[in-house]
Amino acid sequence: MLILKLIRQNKLDAQNDQDYEYLFARADKLPTRLEDIIRDPHVIDGLRRVDILYRSNDQLVSYLQSNVQWDRIKPYLRLPVDSISIFEGMWKRKEHENNSYSICILKKEHPDTLYHYTSVHKDKVPDDAKLKGLFKENKLRFNAPESFNDPFDCAFAAQVEKGFKGKAMTCFSSEKNNVLMFSHYANYHKGICLGFNVGRLINSICSLNKVDTSLRPIWYFNQVPPFEMNDEIALCATCKDDIWSYEQEYRLFLLDGDRLLDFNPQAPDYRFDANAFTSIILGHSIEDSSKKLVKSMTEHLSGTDICYFRAKKQDNKFGIELGKILWSDI
Fold first, then answer.
1. How far apart are CA 267 and CA 247, in angstroms?
2. Is 216 in contact with 238 (CB distance < 8 Å)?
3. Which of 228, 256, 276, 317 has the smallest CB count inside 10 Å?
């Protein structure tokens, strides 16, 4: 979508190009579920003409390379110094000595399992209410973006900040053993990381709470992309500085049709099916009182297919690995 935006800025009649139309018809730009019907007439027309407009990967890449100069893309990317010249050569279609490089257009699909890091204590006191909500009542907490730890999140421009202020969303990661995630979101490795089956989680939230949802990946850029609320509303809520790329984040939005739901601080939790749990991972530095609390809150789940793990430091490496344990060993 970023590259299409750059094409439109340079080529006012871009929408008359069939290659552009083919790409635009599949660009993720609206705050609806991916399977919903896209209401933009231009997009609908493009989707109806898929067979006529079909373009191969090579044709589409060639179109992008011909219409966007490398110097226009480069500012948005943060690449290792030794990779910049390689990517530049690929984009400019320069010959390489072994001709082993290629560019492909891929759609980023969400994984089957996503992870949510959380603390067990609040102000050094066991947070019974939070764990009871998660494990006994099966409720997932949503928040508004102004409470997030990145001040630019959903707020890189005044119009964007105004549009998403007070909207309900929650965050997940595709990473289950990330040192920084445990540090930042699980109380310095004293908390836990919960694995969820994405399909079960989303379907149960929709059915149990009578809402719609939209799960979207976060895109990371070296500088603020030229997205606008009127044209790329979903991307305005899912683009961040690439210093956050270690999070590998996916964001879940609540919807009423096409309308983003407001965050309700009096009722921030939404029910889900306990069968959505796939794993419970104890942080490396989790305290005994926290383990006892997790064990007591999950006793009714001990006979299910949930897997339990304990994070531990890897020998001679800056990393953690997960050791499988039994519920009785918590």
1. 27
2. yes
3. 317
**Which of 190-224 are b and which e, b meaning 16 or more Cβ less than 10 Å from the residue's Cβ?**
bbbbbbbbbebbbebbbeebebbbbbbbbbbbeee
What does 161-198 look like in DSSP terms, one character per residue?
A: HHHHTTB-EEEEES-SS-HHHHHHHTTTTTSEEEEEEH
First to last CA, the chain: 46
What is the predicted pLDDT for the residue at 127?
81
Confidence category of residue 316, pLDDT binned at 50, 70, 90 = very high
Sorting pLDDT into bands at 50, 70 and 90, what band is 182? very high
| pLDDT for residue 35 is more than 60 | no
Three-state secondary-structure class, residue 77: coil
Q: Of the candidates 105, 98, 103, which has an alpha carbon nearest to the alpha carbon of residue 87?
A: 103
**Torsion angle defined by CA atoms of residues 159, 165, 168 and 171, in that order, rounded to the nearest 10 degrees:** 80
d(CA 253, CA 208): 16
Among 2-6, 18-22, 133-137, the minimum mean pLDDT is found in: 18-22
Residues β-bridged to residue 308: 280, 325
Distance CA 54, CA 121 (A): 54
Angle between helices 2-10 and 57-67 (to 10 degrees): 50
Residue 110 is classified by DSSP as P
Q: Is 188 left (phi over 0), alpha (psi -120 to 50) or beta?
A: left
- What DSSP line would sit under 245-288, residue for residue? GGG-EEEEEEEETTEEPBP-TTS-EEE--GGGEEEEEE-TT--H
Distance (Å, rounded) from C-alpha 159 to C-alpha 228? 8
> Other C-beta atoms within 10 Å of 64: how many?
19
**Residue 229, strand partner residues:** none
- Give yes or no for a contact between 289 and 205, defined as CB atoms under 8 angstroms apart: no
Q: DSSP state, 109?
A: P
> What is the model's pTM?
0.84
Lowest mean pLDDT among 46-55, 75-84, 119-128, 194-203: 46-55
